[in-house]
Amino acid sequence: MADTAKESQAPRQRADARRNKEALLDAAAVTFARAGVDVPVREIAAEAGVGVGTIYRHFPTRADLIVAVYRHQVEACAEAGPTLLASSPTPHAALAGWIDLFVDFLVTKHGLAEALRSDNAAFETLHAYFLDRLVPVCAQLLDAAADAGEIRPGMDAYELMRGIGNLCIGANTDPRYDARHLVELVIAGLRRV
C-alpha cells in the first residue's frame, strides 16, 4: 500500500517528455556504439533531435546517461527472450535469436568497460543488474531448448553468457576477427547430435 501511495505522489511525466527521454536513450546508444561513451553531449542531442538542455534535464550527469542507456538496453534484451520463445519456430531458434541480440548488446559497448571500472558509484551495481536480468532469460531459453530435445540438458546460462562475452571482446579491434561467426559455432555446438 505504501508503494502505491508513493507512485500516486510521484509526478507523471508528460508524453512529450517521455518521448524525448526514449529518443535520448536510443540516440545515446547509437552514438555510444559509434564513438564511445565519451562522445560530446551535443552529438547525442543532434542524433536525438533535441537541445543539449533536454539531455541535462533528464540526465544531469554523463554517468546518469550511461547508466540509463545500459539499463534500457539490458531491459530490451531481457524482454526479447520470452517474446522470441513465443514467436520462434523452435526453442533453439529462439535461443539463437536471443544470443544474436546479446552479441549486438555486447559489441556495441565501446568505452563502457572502462566506465564500469571507474570510481563512479553510479556504475557499481550495473554488472549485478545485468546478471540479475539476463542470466534467468538465457536459462529459460536453454531449458526450453533442452526440454524440446534440441540441445543437451544441463547447460549453465552464466557460463554460456560469459563465454559469448569473451568471444566478443576483440570484435571491434581486429577487422579479421568475426565474433558473430564464432558465437554461431558455439550455438551450433549446443545442438544435440
UniProtKB/TrEMBL annotation:
Keywords: DNA-binding, Transcription, Transcription regulation. Pfam families: TetR_C_43 (PF21597), TetR_N (PF00440). One of its GO terms (molecular function) is transcription cis-regulatory region binding. The keyword DNA-binding applies. Residues 40-59 bind DNA. InterPro entries: Homeodomain-like_sf (IPR009057), HTH-type_TetR-like_transc_reg (IPR050109), HTH_TetR (IPR001647), Tet_transcr_reg_TetR-rel_C_sf (IPR036271), TetR_SbtR-like_C (IPR049445). It comes from the Bacteria. SUPFAM superfamilies: Homeodomain-like, Tetracyclin repressor-like, C-terminal domain. Residues 18-77 form the HTH tetR-type domain. PROSITE patterns: HTH_TETR_2 (PS50977). PANTHER family: HTH-TYPE TRANSCRIPTIONAL REGULATOR BETI (PTHR30055:SF234), HTH-TYPE TRANSCRIPTIONAL REGULATOR RUTR (PTHR30055). This is TetR/AcrR family transcriptional regulator. It comes from Actinomadura spongiicola. The lineage of its organism: Bacteria, Bacillati, Actinomycetota, Actinomycetes, Streptosporangiales.
